[in-house]
Amino acid sequence: MDSDSDFYGATPPTTKPSSPQPTNTIPGDEETITALQRRVSSFDPLAWWARNGHLTPSQSTPTKPSPSSQPSQPSSSLHNPYAGLPNAWQLHEPISDFLSRLPPSTTDWRPGLEWIFVANPHTASRYHAPGALQLFRRGGQERLKLFEKFQDMAIKALQQDDSSLSSSGRGKPPDLTVVQREVEREKKETVQDLTELAVECGILAGKWMLFPEENDVDEVWRKVVQATVAGELGIAAKVETKIDKGKPRLICIYTKDFRDKEDVARVLEGLRGLGLVKSGKQIYYKSEAWTELNIYSGNTWGIQASLYSSGQILSYLRAKRPRKP
């Protein structure tokens, strides 16, 4: 649903990577699945971090300013983690000048100008250690590869069973319902492991995503920038620059911690108050950890790309409100 992020200092590709289509059914048999479960069950994200999560001094010093996903306390002074970046709002800069300098509708994409940024100056951001991000990517990719092998070996097991049953004309076909249930359970464990690893590595940011049309992007971005600078939305926001004429633009509005459902809901309410979430239309919230692992819609693992929909968060808010007597 969205392009690769450089929120943590990564460089986004020139085009969004294509994702393989998910497999509709994962065949195999119960005995094979049991053996595969033993193979992947040894992955412990906390133990993996304990073995690999020791940053060297060079890793612990950030090389590029980027807002941290770690919670931070508001400060009386103003802050800007994007200070000095030409494609970002600066503390001394009037908002009107910033919007005139970098209008997203006409600012062409080029290397180094893939995004236009604005930070909430009322929240002090800590710098994120790039070493932790590299470790998260490595550990996350290892875990995804284990699940991918689980899927592949199950497919091969069924293919062999189908071949032997066809040649012999006898035997009991594999129970696909059992297999699919076990693979689904393994997928849930994969998601849990990746989430725990993201927490251990401090990859906590998440984002609401808007996709305004090119004719509307300047006005939508203006509202997001003004509310972000006023401290009324999240910790930062960014908008895509122009690549293809007429293409909808992605705007990301960041929160500091995807686990903080109250803050995620607060930012959604802020977007609704600005008229940026139309009634009856869903928008989606995605953790930055998933973006760093290239988990997009239609991914080969069948993992849901978004963490929340606006409908889910609004239902959460309604459930919290006291019922009228």
UniProtKB/TrEMBL annotation:
Residues 1-29, 51-85 are annotated as: Disordered. Residues 11-25, 56-77 have a biased composition (Low complexity). InterPro entries: Bles03, TIF_eIF4e-like. Signal peptide: none annotated. Belongs to the UPF0696 family. PANTHER family: UPF0696 PROTEIN C11ORF68 (PTHR31977:SF1). This is DUF1917-domain-containing protein. The lineage of its organism: Eukaryota, Fungi, Dikarya, Ascomycota, Pezizomycotina.
